[in-house]
Design a protein that fits this description.
With 650 residues, the protein is an alpha/beta fold. The protein contains 25 helices and 18 strands. The strands form three sheets. The chain has a seven-stranded mixed β-sheet, sandwiched between helices.
Length: 650
């Protein structure tokens, strides 16, 4: 029963971003014999019974009776060893929270430790203790202290003094620069306690942060993000997210304004965002290279947060999920900064404490667990756009790239299917692995908006798959100029538009790392390799596409951009052919393209008979060719047939 209640408490507060960010926070339940505490690396929002570590309270109590080394590092290691030994049988594979001893100090069965921004506005302020005593006279204040055993000792003393002086159980404890502990006898009591504290603080603060997103300067962001991404990881296996709001704008207005957050406010900011952010005024490629080199030499790590003067904030992560976490944690720091003004202004962590946390094994472990590596995938870290990706062949290509680790942007005019496909990929592959952007590939401004959205959300572009296409069959006499130009507009001119807009980003990545390679892939057709009767508009546009591919390949090779075409055979099971109204089976039957054909089935059999391997091309065949074109590093300007032998190169 008690374990079910603490799970319910964990899920409620762990799934609310006001209380918990980046899987942080801790909860515990205790009875007379055992303490059940959240294990390191587990998330409160989805924790199960197995996520708690069952520990002997008797063994934990004996820790207080022992004498440990006066040397802090040895002492912490000794205490951690004894804590691990306090795990019950069957719990050996789990790692209990470093705050286990502290949780066990409270006599109430349920304990919740969280870090709400409004609470940390108090705990990270100059007048925090005085404000707490005024607002919460029954609460306990604990000064900034090294976490682990040292903090537990201080909390034990404070709780003992409080209970001895008041005759009451301690139930509310504020840690300077590190959140709040709530202790309660029931879930109802816990909810009432949390609500009362939050409501009082929210009514007390005089200023609310303005985090509403503002329109970026897309031209500047597109100049900066791809370079930051390649400087952080030379292989491009990183993600950069851009943020601009009123608070960010104020902080990046000058070096002096930025200094308000130049030192971390809590351990979480160090764990997820490193201890020092970076401020940039000159954002040319060479200047950024020099500043990154200087920053790394000084701090022994690369920046996770970069503020660019009068531009905005760039959050850098190992992948889109990590970049999102970095963004959320730093926006939390901005909230704390604003809230602290109601309590005398901001008080950053002491430099000595920053050094301790930065080098503390426990926080290093927590960070590694949070960023636990995914199994190796061929395209991990790559950012790919697939036009016409909402359904059919484009959907298969996008899904295949995502399964191999790429972040995929679905670009299409079909909003319903585009959003559906993006949601399916995200569900299968993880948070922020896909995004839908409404795109008309024949409209330059629409394609620019696609590139801008991609760079602002993910930081760059590695693969552009120009898949969107149309077909209109018919004889020379039957085809109107309007229909002819529409086919060329989508299949030929739009390919040029997309490449023109994409290469700007790809060239910047090459400038940041001369060894880096990007890919442009046109989904062409076997009709681009051989003429097609009564299908001249489509075939001509595809022949032209191969001409563009070869020409682009020659021009872009010096910039590390490979350009290839994939030429599928007849996708007989796809919508393009099988649609009962506008499909090619119907079009070809009506156009008389297949002599003697009386039915759609006659048309199908005719085209199957042309393929040595005896079947139509399938979307998965094309997706495999796309993956090949990306993975190989020594082929450009090629038209790769995927025709089952129907068309063979000579």
């Amino acid at each position: 029963m008690g374990l079910d209640i603490i799970k319910s408490i964990s899920h409620k507060y762990g799934s609310d971003s006001r209380y918990v960010l980046a899987g942080g926070g801790n909860t515990s339940f205790k009875d007379e014999e055992y303490l059940y505490i959240k294990g390191s690396g587990t998330s409160l929002s989805a924790i199960t019974s197995d996520g708690f570590v069952k520990m002997s309270r008797e063994s934990l109590a004996k820790i207080w009776e022992k004498a440990y080394s006066p040397e802090q590092e040895k002492r912490e290691a000794q205490v951690l060893s004894d804590m691990m030994a306090s795990r019950c049988q069957g719990e050996e594979g789990k790692r209990p929270s470093v705050e286990t001893l502290l949780h066990n100090l409270f006599t109430q069965p349920y304990v919740l430790h969280v870090h709400p921004a409004v609470v940390n506005g108090l705990t990270c302020s100059q007048e925090g203790k005085a404000a707490m005593e005024r607002l919460f006279p029954d609460a306990i204040w604990v000064e900034e202290t090294e976490p682990g055993y040292t903090l537990a000792v201080k909390c034990r003393k404070k709780i003992s003094e409080y209970e001895g002086n008041t005759g009451k159980k301690a139930y509310l404890l504020f840690l300077q620069n590190h959140g709040v502990f709530f202790a309660a006898d029931s879930q109802e009591e816990m909810d009432e306690l949390v609500s009362s504290v939050m409501n009082k603080l929210e009514k007390t603060v005089k200023e609310q942060p303005d985090l509403m997103l503002l329109e970026p300067n897309y031209e500047l962001v597109s100049e900066i993000s791809p370079v930051l991404r390649l400087l952080y990881d030379e292989n491009g296996e990183a993600s950069v997210r851009f943020i601009r709001n009123a608070e960010v704008e104020a902080l990046c207005s000058s070096r002096d304004a930025f200094s308000a957050l130049e030192r971390p406010l809590s351990p979480d900011h160090i764990v997820y965002c490193k201890s020092v952010p970076m401020f940039v005024q000159d954002y040319s490629v060479e200047a950024l290279k020099a500043q990154f080199k200087e920053f790394e030499a000084k701090n022994k790590f690369l920046p996770k947060i970069v503020f660019v003067k009068n531009v905005g904030m760039f959050a850098i992560g190992k992948n889109p999920k990590d970049a999102s976490t970095v963004t959320d944690v730093w926006l939390d720091a901005i909230k704390i900064l604003i809230y602290s003004r109601s309590f005398g202004g901001i008080r950053p962590m002491d430099p000595r404490m920053v050094d301790f946390i930065s080098n503390w094994e426990v926080e290093s472990y927590r960070s590694k667990v949070a960023l636990k590596a995914e199994p190796f995938k061929r395209f991990s870290g790559k950012i790919a756009i697939v036009t016409g990706g909402a359904k059919g062949l484009g959907k298969e290509i996008a899904s295949s790239l995502a399964k191999e680790g790429a972040t995929v942007i679905i670009a299409d005019k079909d909003i319903i299917n585009g959003e559906k496909t993006s949601a399916e990929i995200t569900k299968a592959c993880g948070a922020r692995t896909s995004m839908f952007v409404y795109t008309d590939v024949t409209d330059e401004k629409s394609v620019e908006a696609l590139i801008n959205a991609t760079v602002c959300q993910y930081g760059g572009l590695d693969v552009f798959v120009s898949n969107a296409g149309v077909i209109k069959a018919g004889s020379i006499e039957e085809t109107s100029k309007k229909d002819f130009e529409k086919v060329l507009s989508v299949n030929y001119t739009a390919y040029f538009i997309c490449v023109q807009k994409a290469v700007k980003i790809m060239k910047l990545q090459k400038a940041a790392n001369p060894k880096y390679i990007s890919d442009i892939i046109e989904i062409n057709s076997k009709s681009g390799l051989a003429g097609s009767t009564k299908n001249f508009a489509y075939s001509g546009s595809k022949f032209g596409g191969i001409g563009l591919t070869q020409s682009f390949a020659l021009e872009l090779a010096p910039f590390g951009i490979k350009v290839n075409a994939v030429c599928p055979g007849n996708l007989l099971d796809g919508d393009l052919w099988s649609d009962p109204v506008n499909g090619l089976f119907v079009q070809y039957l009506n156009a008389g393209k297949v002599p003697g054909a009386k039915t759609v089935d006659d048309v199908r059999k005719f085209y199957e008979s042309k393929v040595p391997l005896g079947r139509g091309c399938e979307a998965k065949d094309v997706a495999l060719a796309v993956c090949y074109a990306i993975e190989q590093k020594y082929e450009t300007g090629q038209a790769i047939p995927v025709t089952g032998g129907q068309v063979m190169l000579s």
